[in-house]
Amino acid sequence: MNFNELIKANKQNVKNIIRLITKQENEDLEQEVYIRAWKNSDKYEERGSFKSWISTVAKNISKDYLKSSAEL
Question: Is 80 exceeded by the pLDDT of residue 53?
């Protein structure tokens, strides 16, 4: 499966994680998840599922967003 197919298969999951953590829909964060996943795709080890890996990326980006918002 190529990267685009993996993203399409996990799109709703990423949206749900962002909404759960930030309490809002945020397309900028969603794009950031895909950019970071693409840039770090060489670090993905196929021992676990891609869904778990990209979920962790989405959680970390959402938490970072909340931290940066609180600092303002």
Answer: yes
